[in-house]
Design a protein that fits this description.
heterodimer; A: ABC transporter involved in vitamin B12 uptake, BtuC; B: 319 residues; two-stranded antiparallel ribbon; 12 helices
Chain lengths: 350, 319
């Protein structure tokens, strides 16, 4: 039995692949559900009911999508250039820290200026944090996977230092910051929900990244660098500057996830500001096949899983970590499914 | 008299620090050795962080149920091997991206570890604890002043990790099998030509590596601590990946890197408890920062196995 290259699948089949992966991983998640003695029908029912069943649940799923779209876009954008940015988590935290710091200390000014300032500063913070692994890779040949991963822990502990120090709420012994000013809070766009500005921003970001990828010179260069670094270099593309730009945009996108969590969800900085959105971004990017629209769809799907798992856990007693199991499984299954778009199995008798 | 007391205090401080250094380095040594064997065959195993975590969890549960620490280690090895086999299926037999597959295995293993732990233990206010390993005093040697306390009053697994360093070095450089492994990692096509089964070699390397990562994980919950916490591994797997690069894929140099990490880790713990008015998170950041700096130092000189990250498909020879 061997794998051989097959002619490229038609476009519709390529689009179908992630959906197949999703269905397979939902089916396979029945194994841990049964292991946890959850009633299968009830579990799946509450998974979807929790995610989509009521207006509020549906809008909550949209709310959760926002950070996932940003980290998914961040990872996808970097992976297209084969810049292995596994540091979205740290870049997210950088954005959250800056948003909290400005949000607490912001002087009186028009609201839209305040929001623009915070979003801009957060983007820059994440971009600069992502600049470190990019410079280490291009100038010093340090592996980007390892450096961007380790920097997540560095930023986490920087946040801890700040939350036990200058950013700590006066009089509190907990690692949490004071609340941000009303001025810094994202506007809520729909009544009786948490549907906030950040969701619209995420959708706009999808459009912008699509535009960069498809319609700009930078997008073309990123694709060339990702396809073949040496050839791109030989062809006169300034590969170092392309990688650095890619990294900074990627880090900035991830940071906006953190800005949104502080300015629209928690309204203060805390150690648990991200339950691993940066790592989920990797899964979302792969399932979205690194395409911005795909990222949007797969972010919405994983948001359903994360939001729905809470209801499911409450109603059936299956641990809420089922969402993490499904995410991990979906990535592995997606990888295998993707393989079969390029290869087919041939059985040869020896 | 005062000066004498100072000296005793300092001596005990140094003994404590160095003894802790070897203890803290042990999981890193296991993980680094496992990753070196794996990478020498041409496979990057980024599943290490998740494998260490899920092994730590299952090892802990096994000990919690049976009371036997060694049984916990055995289960951890088994779990490490199972996840290494998943990795082998994905990257060796299917030839998928080693980067993404490894991250996938880490994310999957992490999710599963938390899921199984929460299902088994529930959410009690006080997490359950096991009776951890006791330090194993080596008779006579532990009586040597100074060195005895540092080197020979450690957990048994610490000695095992020391023994493995030369064993793996000899295996890699002085045996036929080690040579075959290195050829597979450097030039799989040449290895295939001389009749070495590339995929089998890589699978075995992953399995042995996974077993070692499993022991490293078990050390964290059965010796270093006596309970399982979600962040018990806390990036140590990634540190191992860094130490492999730092050590230029050599078991001795990689282990020295692990000792350096252990030293910084032990040092920051002592700084924390010494009551400096500096937040402890600032100390926790030290090991990671120094690991990155260490990587910068060696980056230009290091040379990865030439076949690393490349799947081998015989039918695509020369393609």
């Amino acid at each position: 039995m061997i794998l051989t290259k097959r002619p490229p699948l038609p476009y519709w089949a390529q689009i179908l692949i992630p959906f197949i992966a999703i269905v397979v991983s939902l089916c396979l998640s029945s194994i841990p559900i049964i292991y946890a003695k959850g009633d299968l029908f009830k579990s799946y029912f509450y998974l979807f009911y929790g995610a989509l069943g009521t207006r509020y649940n549906f809008l909550e799923t949209c709310v959760k999508s926002s950070p996932l779209i940003f980290t998914g876009l961040a990872v996808a954008f970097a992976f297209r250039a084969k810049f292995w940015n596994i540091g979205a988590e740290g870049q997210l935290l950088a954005g959250a820290i800056v948003a909290a710091w400005i949000g607490i200390n912001i002087p009186e000014m028009p609201k839209f200026v305040a929001i623009a300032l915070i979003v801009g500063a957060g983007f820059v913070a994440g971009g600069l944090w992502a600049l470190i692994p990019a410079l280490l890779k291009t100038k010093l040949k340090v592996d980007d996977v390892v450096s961007s991963l380790l920097l997540n822990y560095v930023m986490w502990h920087i946040m801890g230092t700040l939350l036990f120090g200058p950013l700590q709420q006066p009089g509190s012994s907990w690692p949490r910051s004071p609340s941000i000013s009303e001025l810094a809070k994202y506007p809520i766009l729909l009544a009786r929900s948490r549907f906030h500005l950040g969701i619209v921003m995420a959708v706009v970001a999808i459009a912008i990244i699509w535009f960069i990828n498809e319609k700009t010179v930078l997008g073309y260069r990123i694709k060339s660098v990702g396809a073949n670094l040496k050839a791109a270099d030989f062809g006169g593309i300034p590969t170092t500057s392309v990688i650095i730009k890619t990294a900074m945009i990627s880090g900035g996108l991830a940071a906006l996830a953190g800005v949104g969590e502080v300015c629209a969800i928690h309204y203060h900085l805390l150690m648990d500001v991200s339950p691993g959105y940066g790592y989920s971004g990797i899964i979302i990017a792969m399932l979205g096949r690194l395409h911005p629209v795909g990222v949007g769809l797969s972010a919405f799907f994983f948001s359903m899983i994360i939001v729905g798992a809470q209801t499911m856990s409450r109603m059936t007693g299956v641990p809420v970590y089922i969402a993490d199991v499904i995410q991990g499984m979906a990535l592995l299954i997606m990888l295998v499914a993707q393989l079969f778009t390029e290869y087919e199995i041939k059985v040869i008798s020896k | 008299m005062g000066r004498l007391f100072d000296q005793i205090f300092q001596m005990s401080f140094i003994i404590g620090l160095l003894s802790a250094m070897f203890r803290m380095a042990t999981p890193i040594i296991f993980g680094t050795l496992g990753e070196i064997i794996t990478e020498r065959s041409g496979v990057l195993n980024l599943g290490i962080e998740g494998i260490m975590l899920i092994s730590a969890m299952f090892g802990f549960l096994a000990t919690l149920t049976t009371g036997s620490q060694w049984f916990g280690v055995l289960i951890a090895i088994l779990v490490g091997v199972i996840f290494a086999l998943i990795m082998a299926f994905l990257v060796v037999y299917l030839g998928l991206s080693q980067h993404v597959s490894g991250l996938g295995v880490t994310l999957f293993a992490t999710g599963l570890a938390m899921f199984v732990y929460r299902h088994t233990v529930g959410s009690p206010t006080i997490p359950p604890v096991v009776q951890p390993f006791k330090p194993f005093l080596i008779p006579y040697l532990s009586d040597i002043p100074f060195f005895g306390q540092i080197l020979f009053n450690q957990y048994a697994l610490v000695y095992v990790s020391w023994a493995l360093i030369p064993i793996i070095w000899i295996f890699l450089y002085k045996t036929r099998y080690g040579l075959a492994l290195r050829v597979v990692g450097e030039n799989p096509m040449a290895a295939d030509t001389v009749g070495i089964n590339v995929n089998l070699t890589r699978t075995l390397a992953l399995v042995v590596g996974g077993a070692l990562m499993g022991v490293g994980g078990a050390f964290l919950t059965l010796a270093h601590q006596n309970m399982f916490l979600i962040d018990v591994v806390g990036g140590r797997g990634w540190v191992c990946i860094a130490m492999v690069i730092f050590g230029n894929w050599d078991p001795i140099r990689g282990s020295l890197g692990a000792l350096l990490f252990g030293f910084i880790d032990a040092f920051q713990l002592r700084l924390q408890s010494s009551g400096f008015a500096i937040p402890f998170h600032l100390f926790l950041v030290l090991p990671y920062v120094i690991t990155i700096i260490a990587l910068i130092g060696v980056a230009r000189k290091s040379s990865a196995p030439a076949g690393l990250l490349k799947p081998y498909r015989r039918e695509e020879k020369g393609g």
